[in-house]
Amino acid sequence: LSQLFRPLDLLGMVYRTIRQGLIDMEAMYTLIDTPTEVADAPGARALAVAGGAVRFDQVRFGYDPEREILHGVSFAVPAGGTLAIVGPSGAGKSTIARILFRFYDIASGAVMIDGQDIAGVTQQSLRAAIGIVPQDMVLFNDTIGYNIAYGREGATQAQIEAAARAAQIHDFILGLPQGYDTRVGERGLKLSGGEKQRVAIARTLLKDPPVLVLDEATSALDSRTETEIQTVLRDISRKRTTLVVAHRLSTIVDADEIIVLDQGRIVERGRHADLVRADGLYATMWARQAAERDAPPADVRVEDMF
Ligand code: ATP
Description:
alpha/beta; 4-stranded antiparallel β-sheet; 36% helix; 18% strand; globular; binds adenosine-5'-triphosphate
């Protein structure tokens, strides 16, 4: 019977999510994984965002109680700072992002934003404070304008276009048959990986969150597109606290801190230059990626180097 009700539960949650007006495409993208037991604590208050400082304190977590995935992960990103997370496939990088968004409750430890435990604030206020640019965004079967406008309820056409311009997709949209009214998604125009990422960036710019999670695409975009997108991402992360799940080390040389995650543990941490000097795992990855960059095909992921 529970198998019958679970989909209904899920539907109910989708409905509530939309009704609450959560700016929550991010939630949709991993919704199927979302356990229904995450609930607002009794008397939960709205998150009071100051600068968006993020802190993980000895976080232990497993999707399944029998299999712990994060074994006591700690880091602190000051307001406006950038943390890069690298490591092999399955290390737990995306799990960190999901926990920050509170798709799951942790087993022990604490996750704080501006000194407030995220388990004690309303989910709506938490999710309003965080923008995610996922590696592969699912578009709504609607117009491209709607897909961007979803970032902020009541956005005006001028605001939508300003966001699109900043994400460098405005000119592309003007060249489409019906401009901003062109339908996209499964039943409309199919966008390339790079175009979808720009839509995600435009949407996030409209949302204007103090905390940003960038889940870098694993599949390589062509190098010109990639460079352009990196420039835009660097711009939008400048004023915001940013966690970037990185696959290409060249994109994170300026990060304030890099953590190398392996099987749910931080095995190295520091700035790029320190890690290269330390001559450990990161240094090996960096040397190999530098060599790959000089020799095509350049499409090698950090994960494949462990
Ligand atoms: P990648 O670089 O391949 O995206 P990652 O470092 O982001 O990997 P995670 O997606 O965080 O890795 O996964 C960490 C571990 O958690 C993996 O062993 C994975 O199998 C497991 N895992 C991820 N999602 C779930 C889930 N919904 N249920 C159970 N286990 C999961």
